[in-house]
Design a protein that fits this description.
By secondary structure, the protein is mostly beta strands. Helix content is 0%, strand content 43%. The protein contains no helices and 15 strands. The chain has strands spanning 5-8, 14-18, 22-26, 33-36, 51-56, 62-66, 70-75, 80-84, 99-104, 110-114, 118-121, 127-129, 145-149, 152-157, 160-164. Strand 10 (110-114) and strand 11 form a beta hairpin. The termini are far apart.
């Protein structure tokens, strides 16, 4: 099976996803998998089966993202998903539905790397867009990996490694 996302959560469960693989989780005792897929007529199922990124936030929630599926938060109590999508009419929505990377940080933020830029979902639930206007180069950002540092977040992108300041400006 194609595995493009792999994540170990704080309960020692292994989460994985891939192209047309959905989201899968191996229990902490390594005895069995649970599988989650998009159900065409089930609005609370996984938004898409091409899972490219998995992360856990400070509250312990599991998040997934992938190609044309936006961002999903897994509701463990009901085994369903809450969807967050890009909307042209809403400046406070995701910058793109193509999510390439996710990372929860120590401050309670969820960092979201997309083909069109970087978003941050704060502990208050609001999405904020990182200002990439001063980053040299043209074309897509394609933020594919995040690393938390003592003075901010480092993002691996198509335009190189970017440092994102507290004011959400990339340099």
């Amino acid at each position: 099976a194609d595995v493009t996302a792999l994540f170990v959560d704080r309960d020692n469960r292994i989460w994985c996803g891939g192209e047309d693989a959905g989201l899968n989780v191996l229990d902490a005792q390594r005895r069995g998998f649970r599988h989650f897929h998009n159900g065409e007529h089930d609005a609370r199922s996984l938004a898409g089966n091409d899972v490219w990124a998995i992360a856990q936030d400070a509250d312990g929630a599991i998040w997934t993202g992938g190609y044309a599926m936006g961002l999903d938060r897994f509701d463990e109590s009901t085994s369903t998903f809450v969807h967050f999508r890009h909307a042209d009419s809403d400046a406070g929505s995701l910058v793109s539905d193509n999510v390439l990377a996710l990372r929860g940080d120590a401050k309670g933020n969820l960092w979201i790397g997309t083909d069109a830029g970087i978003d941050v979902r704060g502990a208050d639930g609001r999405f904020r867009h990182v200002d990439v206007s001063t980053v040299p180069g043209t074309g897509a950002i394609n933020a594919a990996v995040f690393l938390e540092s003592a003075d901010g977040i480092l993002a691996g992108t198509r335009r190189g490694v970017l440092h994102v300041d507290a004011d959400l400006t990339a340099r």
